[in-house]
Amino acid sequence: MSRAFSSSGARALVLSTPEGVRFSLPLAGPVIRFLAWTVDLACILAASFLLDRVLRAVQVVQPDAASALSILGYFVLSTGYPMALEWLWRGRTVGKRLLGLRVVDEEGLRLQFSQVAVRNLLRAVDSLPVFYLVGGATCFASAKAQRLGDYAAGTVVARSLRMAPPDLESLGPAPYNSLKAFPHLAARLRRRVSADEAALALQCLLRRDRLEPEARLRLFKELADRFRSMVKFPDEAVGGIPDEHYVRNVVELVYGKE
Amino acid sequence: MILNLREFIAKETPRWRRLEDLLGRMESDPGFRMGLEELKELHELYLRASADLERVATFAAAPDLRRYLESLVARAYGEIHETRGKSRRPAPFHWFFRTFPRTFRRHLNLFLLAVAVVLAGGGFGGYAVLADPYAKEALLPFPHLLLDPAERVAREESKGKGVHAGEEEDPLRGGKATFSAYLMTHNTRVSILLMAMGITWGAGTVVLLFYNGVVLGAVTADYVAAGQGEFLVGWLLPHGSVEIPAFLLAGQCGLLLGGTLMGRGSRKSLKARLRATGRDVTTLLGGAALLLAWAGLVEAFLSQYHEPVLPYSVKIGFGVAETVLLAGFLGFSGSGGGKSREGAPS
Fold it and tell me: How far is B35 from chain A (nearest CA, A)?
């Protein structure tokens, strides 16, 4: 079963498996897809240019054949390139690879050749009248960011993600964490900190040396105030701790060992 | 759930990497088939990664890890839960001689509808040209069709006489392959558009079919009224006997897509209907493209030669033979043998 949801402008496809696991695929919007298409267009033009260079040798002997091969070559490249690559590379072309995109079945199943073919053949309509205006408009309006070709083929374009485990080592050795002295409050704080808040705090700590001193103070004060408002620790645990140290304690608590 | 993230990642990463490795092998080769042991391992790793995802999903601190596991589970889910037939290695002869004609026959009603629309357009175009000679300029898109038919026939045949007698050089010499390639690609693009316009619930396809019928009807009426029917048939039949059916096949595809969107008389959801017809649309359009490649060759290398270079009887005979062969092929090829599921009924 699949459904789409949108959160703060980012659209995602949520799938539920028969095993009861729910996962979401972040969907690519029309702008990044247009950029990927631009890269693909550049690849097609480059390949056509190379083909023309090769055919110049043929042209000396058989000008008619060279000209015919050039026409056929461009047609095959422009029509077959996205189909062949999306089929062989499981939903990716050069442009999609570079921008981290992948065509996937909207039910999360394996992509079929007919789906790849239909979504690419429908470019004839999506690209009308110029620069994919029809496809772009449909993509903007669609909950699953689908152009007409995706709609007919039952596909979506998702963003491929690579693993990036939290790099806690770069924070250096952990100083004494006074929050751990209150395990029930620490457990409550862990539950209340959202994934995005934790990731934001970690990134702020990792990049703290690159911040202007004033901005650094202001940023960590805001973060510390936010975390303090979630769970109130006794004064003996947090009294006198600078904001940055407090945020560090929270991050260590959320990411680290209990 | 309380989780030591570092330990969790360190412990599970080898399994995730192994799952990635198996999926990578499956994804890099469309024809790849796994042994039973590897399939069991894949299933076990998928279940384990799913369980890991569930654990991480309740844990606030690992958005990147959660997204990575979601991506991994999504890839494995697609491989494990797919029930549609796995795409096999290409079998072009089987596809051309069995799948294509069978698919055509399964949606014959839509082909006949395309024929009816073109005939309606042809009737309109023919009537318009006969009733109002000025309509020709508005209806016909090519300059050579705007000439007086008798004048054009005289011009073409006089060129032919010169070439035949060796007094003039063949005007198509050194350009036939280029012309042929142009015709193939142009006509295939038009066919793709005919199919793609089916996304407008078939309306765009009907309009394009009707328009092509208008042009065909106007040309036919113009030449027949001028007493040049033999030239017309000799000119159009060698390539038209394949090209026109190819366009009709593309129209059939567009109508199939439009009909699927409408879903009249079907209890399936729109998504299920579109899934069922995608393969048939691809097959029919692929067949049409092959026919257009042949038509392009014939039009460039044969159709442009007229009497006395090539007697009309030869050209007409060739066109009739093609028509009979094509009708026999589409009507009967692949009709023997067992049943095969190559698409859903329209």
Answer: 19
Q: What is the pTM of this model?
A: 0.79
Q: How many residues does chain A have?
A: 258
Instruction: Confirm whether A164 is domain-assigned.
Output: no
Interface contact A113-B282, CB threshold 8 A:
yes
Pairing, β A2-7 against β A10-16: antiparallel
* Boundary of a domain, candidates A104, A129, A159: A159
d(CA B28, CA B150): 61
Q: How far is B111 from chain A (nearest CA, A)?
A: 19
* Length in residues, chain B: 346
**Are B315 and B295 in contact, with CB atoms under 8 Å apart?**
no
**Tens digit of each residue's pLDDT (9 = 90 or more) over A60-93:** 888 899 999 999 999 999 999 999 999 888 889 9
Do B285 and A121 make contact, defined as CB atoms within 8 angstroms? yes
Range of the domain at A105: 2-159
Smallest Cβ–Cβ distance between A166 and the set B54, B62, B87 belongs to B62
Token readout for A73 is 């070559």
Does B181 contact A72 at a Cβ distance shorter than 8 Å?
yes
* Chain B hits for A194, Cβ within 8 Å: 60
B82 CB neighbours in chain A (<8 A) are 109-110
**B196 and A122: CB-CB below 8 Å?**
yes
Q: In chain B, which residues have their Cβ closer than 8 Å to the Cβ of A198?
A: 60-61, 63
Same domain, A35 and A129: yes
> Which residues on B lie below 8 Å from A121 (Cβ)?
192, 195-196, 281-282, 285
Model pLDDT for residues A136-162, shown as the tens digit of each residue = 999 989 989 999 999 999 999 998 765
User: How would you list the strands of the sheet with A10-16, edge to edge?
Assistant: A2-7, A10-16, A22-26
Give the span between the Cα atoms of A101 and A32, in whole angstroms: 9
Which of these three, A159, A183, A201, is where a domain ends?
A159
DSSP per-residue letters across A109-127: -PPPHHHHHHHHHTHHHHT
B274 contact partners, CB below 8 Å, separation of at least 6: A151, A152, A153, A154, B260, B261
